[in-house]
Structure prediction request, 339 residues.
Amino acid sequence: MPLHIIRQDITTVNVDAIVNTTNERMVGYSGIDRLVHQKAGPGLDAACRELAPLELGFAKITPGFSLPCKYIIHTSGPVWKGGGYGERAVLRSCYLESLGLAKAQGCETVAFPLISSGYYGYPKDQVLRQAVAAISEYLKYEELTVFLCVFDPASYEFSRSLYADISRFINASSLPLPQMARPQMARRPLIPRKEKAAPCEAIPEAMPCTMPCPGPAGSLSDFLETMDAGFAETLFALIDAKGMTDVECYKRANVDKKTFSKIKCKPDYRPSKPTAVAFCIALRLNLEETQQLLRTVGMTLSRSNKFDLIIEYFIAKGIYDIYEINQALFEFDQVLLGC
Prediction:
């Protein structure tokens, strides 16, 4: 998928470029910056000295040195001063400038930390939302795979009210079924061990069935002609019905261009459930329509599955922002939508 949210140390992610949040002097001052400098080696220190200073909200690039990435993109994030000093605009600029630099360098994959979420004090209830908003805005127009690394869960704070509301919905939908009373069965008399059971009576031959048995008429080939449309055919019919372009649809679904091309070129393509559901969200299908599309690949939303219940919650609420849904899935340790 174009945007992944992962729990991983950014210095270990195997991508073309990682983004390092630093200060204007680029000296490896604390947190992620210090870790990046330690793992990259002394060559990075020398390269940063040549590039400094780094203006607030801008980005510069160096080789990856001893890190598994080809490049390190350095950006200077805002210090939180209450929100009245342009912090939001600077933070957005950090993401967009870094993405543009990665694209210009020919990168196909890039990993970000949550910029300014630690030492610089950007409010935890805003930082993940601002990062996702900036990255998703860029991905509307560019093809790039982005990883957002949340190494420390304490560095962001998911909406507590939304978390509680989803939890209530899951709990209410997962109540145990009432125990049904077992019918009283007559006990069969036990046969004493020393006695032999009476020989079984001969079973009479089965009588031929005289009742009409409904079934498919004609040959197997004729019956197969009645088969419903598959996933790909149904998907593209829905895209046309919604007045969407293909690009608009797969970007809203957080699905990469290669996967969408496979679906388009292979009528029998079978997507994973997160991919199939992602298209349901992109097309803003209601619950019944979602179930119909999922049935084309033998899937369904079940009330015994937490992932399915979270999807049902958002569809029932009429919320079709795939990034908001993925943040909720991430918080509940579920697989994210897209591919």
Remarks:
- The chain has 13 helices and six strands.
- The chain has a mean pLDDT of 86.
- Residues 7 and 153 are 8 Å apart (CA to CA).
